[in-house]
Specification:
This protein is of the alpha/beta class. It has helices spanning about 10-20, 40-45, 50-60, 80-85, 90-95, 100-105, 115-125, and strands at about 5, 70-75, 110, 130-135, 140-145, 150, 160-170, 170-175.
């Protein structure tokens, strides 16, 4: 199967324009600049399943990038994923010493542009169940749909979408059940 990097907004916009799906205009999960009243930073704090991620990002002083005008899609590990880290790792990530690792894992979890769930599902269907999203780093984010489950990242241990997604004024947050592994 041929795969290519899918620049988030451009390709999804072309896909939607070409399919003539009028339901996209009425889909309540469709992201846009007026989709949510809270920005990404505030929205992360409003999702119960992301309370640990919110604390880790806050301690690493990483809320500011999500306050700005840029639009992003963020795949954040749920509380259970953080709690499953080896003993002492979560506390280290919450410390100043862990900030570089928090930045490293976070950048692997951010795609450029706001990609609503309906758009993501349509792109997966149109591309044989596998796409790559442009990320904020050189490494694209692979998204695969297998047996009704949506996986984020490569490999058999890639995290899955939990079903929770939230629209913010400047993007979309998806809750996943693990960490996207680095390819390096």
């Amino acid at each position: 199967m041929k795969r290519s990097i899918v620049p988030a907004l451009a390709t999804l916009s072309l896909l939607l324009a070409g399919c003539g799906d009028t339901q996209a205009d009425t889909d309540p999960t469709r992201a846009g600049s007026t989709a949510g009243t809270s920005n990404l930073s505030a929205m992360i704090g409003e999702v119960d399943e992301l309370s640990i991620a919110d604390e880790v990002l806050g301690n690493a002083d990483l809320a500011d990038p999500f306050d700005g005008a840029g639009a992003y899609t963020i795949f954040l590990p749920d509380n259970a994923a953080f709690e499953a880290l080896p003993t002492g790792e979560l506390e280290r990530l919450k410390s100043d010493e862990g900030r570089p690792e928090v930045i490293a894992f976070l950048t692997r979890h951010i795609a450029v542009g706001a990609i609503a769930r309906g758009d993501l599902d349509r792109a997966l269907e149109a591309n044989g169940g596998s796409i790559e999203l442009e990320s904020v780093v050189d490494e694209p984010i692979e998204v695969r749909k297998i047996d009704g489950q949506t996986y984020i990242g490569k490999g058999d241990d890639a995290p899955r979408l939990t079903g929770t997604s939230e629209l913010a004024s400047n993007g979309v947050i998806y809750v996943i059940d693990g960490f996207i592994p680095s390819e390096k």
